[in-house]
Amino acid sequence: MSEIYAGLNSLSFSRIRQLYRNNPDVKRIQGALLIFLAIQMLSDVINNNSVNNMLRGWAAIGVSLVVFTFMFRMFDDTPRIIIAFMCAEVVRLILFGSSSLEQDTSSMMEDYSVFKFRIAPITNYIILIITFYTYNKRKDVLTVAIIMAYGLTNVALDFRSNGMFFLFGGLIIHFRRVLMHMTLARKIGLTIFVGIFFQILYIFYVNAVLSGEFGGKHADDQLSQADNPYNPFALIGQGRGEFFVAIEAIKDAPWLGHGSWAVDENNHYRSLMFKDLDRDRSRMEALNNSGVIPSHSILLGAWLYGGIIAFLCIFYIFWLVMKRAFSLIMNERAMETPYYPILVYFTVQLLWVFPFSPLPHIRNTLPLIIGFILTIYHSIQNEEDDEEEDLLPDNGGYHDDSYYEARPGNGQSIS
Predict the structure, then answer these.
(1) Does residue 212 come out as left (phi exceeding 0), alpha (psi in the -120 to 50 range) or beta?
(2) How many CB atoms lie within 10 A of CB 40?
């Protein structure tokens, strides 16, 4: 119902033209998605894909395009609507749960914590709403303390990735001004130091999990099965085996992919995820021959389904958004807005979502995050352009400052 509403609400072409003027990146995102849709259609036809899978693949991209446009329009009215949106999401999640719960069987709940699927989707938004107000009032100490404490809680309750989003976000917020004025040489040195420090902390984390003092059952199982539990990349390989399986599938059809929701015939690709076929025989037998080729990656999923051009379209969106997001993190004006903690969290989250989250995220997770980031970026650009224009001499004088107002699109200030 929400997607139908978004589609009907996006039919105002005059408003779309205004949106293009206020936020030129909207047209770039739409163009990349339209090319992705066209090349996906070609891939499905050439691969002689089933009608059902064709329509599923095309609908996902088409709905993504509609929701992206709707989110851009919503935030163009005022970025502050992100707070109302998060409050509404909290209510929705309490009443209906997250989409992940559609797959929430009893066997799955034995492997994954209830916190990850039921509680964290709600508390994430609550924490971001709280930081919006604490950062506005107290700026540093309280906001960073809340974010870091919540991040550690996530790691302790077996939701590592979400915990890391908040922990890294808290560090960025705390050291934001230091990072802004740091030279390239110091940034490289800091990166090396952070890498070494992270590895030391990771060793303590592994020891605590394996001894049963910290973390949960899922973390213990993954670390126990990893070839080298002290290698973080080995843990990623253990937890995101679909990523590496997708690479193998891409090698077999690099140019036009396997088609939308490509079926994994005889479990050929899914069997690659199981190192010990004897030990995992029961899991293999539970798989049927109608499952799709696993990917669990937006970037690789686009390549797997639509080929290299589809991958380049999604990678272009990733590159564009990251470029804008990193410039915001280093922008002093952005640091003064109460949206800064939300921007930092969304940026860190996208660095994980694009490579390690399923392709369907393009129609639910990405429109919200990308629409918000790009709107804030162009809002600040408009403010800075207006200030420069104010300083230009006009008949020997200066423009009246009150004539120009910071706006994302229709006069609303981001601050």
Answers:
(1) left
(2) 27
Q: Are 384 and 333 in contact (CB under 8 A)?
A: yes
pLDDT band with cut points at 50, 70 and 90 for residue 228: confident
Kindly report, residue by residue over 144-199, the tens digit of the pLDDT.
Answer: 999 999 999 998 888 888 999 999 999 999 888 887 778 878 878 888 888 898 88
C-alpha 27/C-alpha 360 separation (Å) is 21
Query: Is residue 218 pLDDT above 80, yes or no?
Result: no
- How far, rounded to the nearest angstrom, does the alpha carbon of residue 326 sit from its chain's CA centroid? 14
Nearest to 206 by CA among 236, 232, 233: 232
By the 8 A CB rule, do 370 and 29 touch? yes
| Largest Cα–Cα separation, the chain | 85
Token pair 């193998």 is at which residue? 248
Q: Do residues 264 and 323 lie in contact, with contact meaning Cβ atoms separated by under 8 Å?
A: no
pTM recorded for the entire structure: 0.86
Percent of the chain with pLDDT over 90: 43
Which tokens in the block code for residue 236?
């990623």
Of the two residues 94 and 234, the one the predictor is more confident about is 94
Q: Which amino acid is at 22?
A: N
Beta bridge pairs of residue 393: 398
Distance CA 35, CA 12 (A): 22
Q: Which long-range contacts (CB under 8 A, 24 or more apart) does 163-171 make?
A: 164/348, 164/352, 165/345, 165/348, 165/349, 165/352, 166/127, 166/345, 168/348, 169/341, 169/344, 169/345, 169/348, 170/144
